[in-house]
Every structure is written in C-alpha cells, then in structure tokens.
What does this fold into?
Amino acid sequence: MHFELSDDLADLQSRLLTFVEDEIDPITADDDPESPSQELRREIARRSDAAGFYRLAVPVSDGGLGAGPRIITAAHEALALSGNPFASRVLGSGPGLMRLADNAAQRDELYRPVVRGERTAAFAFTEALRPDGTRQPTQAVRATVGDGSDGFLVTGTKGFVTGGSTSDWLVVVANVPEEGTALLVVDRDAEGVSEGELGASIDGSTHSPFNFESVEVPASRLLGNVGDGLPRALQNIDRMRLSVAADCIGWSRWVNRTTLERIEGPHRSGQSLAEQQQVQAIFADMVADTFSARTALYQAAEAREADEPTAGTQVAAAKWLASECLHRTVDRAIQLHGAQSLLRGHPLERLYRTSRSLRIAEGPTELLRLTVTRHVRQNGASAL
Ligand SMILES: Cc1cc2nc3c(=O)[nH]c(=O)nc-3n(C[C@H](O)[C@H](O)[C@H](O)COP(=O)(O)OP(=O)(O)OC[C@H]3O[C@@H](n4cnc5c(N)ncnc54)[C@H](O)[C@@H]3O)c2cc1C
It folds into this structure.
C-alpha cells in the first residue's frame, strides 16, 4: 500500500537496493552496526564510490552527482528500506554548512577537504549552560587576532555536538553584538576550546559539550555574512530533517515487511498470528501510519525541490510525522514479535532506540508542531 514513485526515483531505489544486497550485505554480516571498524567504513565508501553513489549529494562542479532534495530523499528511503544497518554509510556526506564557503581560499581550505571526506566538521548549535551553571548565549566579539588580522573572540558553551570529539572543526553559531548571528569555523584544538565529558546516546551516537573562552577566530573562517548565521544554520537543519524523515519512512517500511513475515509465519499456538483480528488491526495501523507519513514526505521533498514558500513548514511536518510514525511502528512491531525482539542486538530493539532519539534530534516534535501552527496563523484559513 503505497503510491508509485516517478521512474527516475524508482530506478535509483532499485539500483541502491541491488547494490546493498550484492556489495554491502556480504561484508557486513558479522559486524556490530554501532561500532563498525574503520576498515569496514572505508570499504563501504570505496564500493559505493565505485558504484557511483557515494558522492550523490556533492555538487557536479566538485565531482559529485549534484542530487537535489527529491533524489536524496529517495536514496535515504531506499537505503533504510534495505534493512542493512550499515547502508546509511553508502552515502558520503555532502558539503553541509561548508557549502557557504564563498571564496577561493575557503573552498580550498574548508570546503574541498570536507566533500572529499578528508576532514570533518561538527555542528555546534545547541546552547548549553556554562560550566558554572549560568546562561550566556555564545558570543563572537569583533577583535584583532593572531597576526594582527581582523577576526572574532568567541565565548560561550555548546552542548550535544554529535561527532565533536573526533571532528577537525566545529561550525559554531554565535551572536555578534548588535550585528546578528554568524557561523564560524573553529579548530577543535584551538587555544580556549575545551571539550567536556563525552556522552553516548541510546541510539549509539556520541556527543560532546564544548566551552569556548575568548577563542580567536580569523575573519577568513566566517561562513557567509554576519547577520545570516541563524537562517543559514536553519537551512542546513531543514536539509537534515528531510533526510531523517526519509530514513524513518524507509525503516518503517522495512519493519512492516518484517512484521508481515512474522505474523504470517508459524506460531506455537498452531495458528498464524495473522489470523487474529487484534493482530490484523495493529498491523493495519502500522501500514496506514507509514502510508500517510510517506505521502507527506514526498510532498515535502517536491516542495523543497521547487523551493516553494511552504517548503520549510512541509519539511518540518514531514520530519515530525515520519519520526513519530517510526516510533509507533517499531513499538507495535515489537508487540507483535514478542519477547525475542527485546533482546539486545535484535534489529527492532536497535530501531526502537534510534526512533526514540529521532523524536528529539533535528527538532523535537513539539517545536515542529509550533512551526506548523505559526504557518497557518500567518497564512489564515487558506493554508488549511
Ligand atoms: C541524537 C541527537 C543528536 C544531536 N546532535 C546535535 C549536534 O550535532 N549539534 C547540536 O548543536 N545539537 C545537537 N543535538 C541537540 C538538539 O539540537 C537538541 O536536543 C534539541 O534542540 C532540543 O534541545 P534540548 O535537548 O536541550 O531540549 P530542551 O530545549 O530543554 O527541550 C526539552 C523538551 O521541552 C519541550 N520544549 C522545548 N521548547 C519548547 C517550546 N518552545 N514549546 C513547546 N515545547 C518545548 C520539547 O518537548 C523538548 O523536547 C542533538 C540531539 C540529539 C538527540
């Protein structure tokens, strides 16, 4: 029960599913998806690059495929639908916020190493309380730095920076007094940067808090302009939300397929679970939930592709609906699979933890709901 994708997207999904089955499944069967070895990660990237998938999100001018929101959405959905927990590594990272590098020096120093996968940049956005418990939003004060050039002194505290402990750079969102927000690329090991205790989330990802005490950042590390830092950061979050929503829908569909096998298979009662009306109703909820969230996902992807004015609201709604759908779907699937699916390492147990974290990451559901109501109130009843 789902609508048909256009031929180009259906073809991409079919090629990705075949690739995962032929090239990724055979090399990942014995590894732990939550701590893959460096060699395995490299091998997945190598095979994906050889098959022409790895640089899907990288602009054509930099040797990539320059895929837009529709294609990226379909790719994420297919990789999640494959059921292989390593499949998300098939797509290399796009430029992220480094796409704002707008002069030759920044493109050489910051942008190219990131799109080539040689350097990594973590995103330091979420404000945290200072180590002494006080609150002071991160500030970047204009100052003369290092060799006498113009720059900023950054002071503040950021929390929950995913991958921060292993990244080369931190892209910090900071407020420049009386001018607005800025995005600054800070060396993780610069003087004045201190990393707090590494935290591990239930989904297997790791995060660090960072404190910045008068960290010198040259003006050459400013991405975009002072004043447009927050809108640019939110644009990047919008891209991430669409990909997360697509992951959630792909996983939900995989869960539904796995659950169908389970309920139609033999059961110790002598009658398959699919014969039970209560089971049929739970399964119908899973399928219909996924169907409606998937429809919203592709509608939002089309709106984002066309850069429609409503795209941001649609993407927010799609992420909210897809992440909540995944959580309900996995929860219902666990109910139908019974105790075995609660054992640590079972795919549903892992997805349950993942889905829990995705209801908060890239915007908690409650904030996304505010976005929708704000949009309707601004546009009146015609938006309904
Ligand atoms: C897996 C994961 C990865 C992350 N990675 C990063 C990262 O790389 N970089 C980064 O900067 N941050 C990252 N974050 C942090 C993320 O941005 C924040 O968790 C998120 O913005 C919510 O902030 P908070 O957790 O401090 O919760 P709070 O802001 O304290 O909110 C807690 C809850 O209160 C409710 N709430 C809050 N505000 C409102 C409101 N205005 N109206 C109604 N309800 C509200 C919501 O239910 C919310 O879940 C990550 C989080 C997760 C879970």
Q: What stands out?
A: The mean pLDDT is 94.
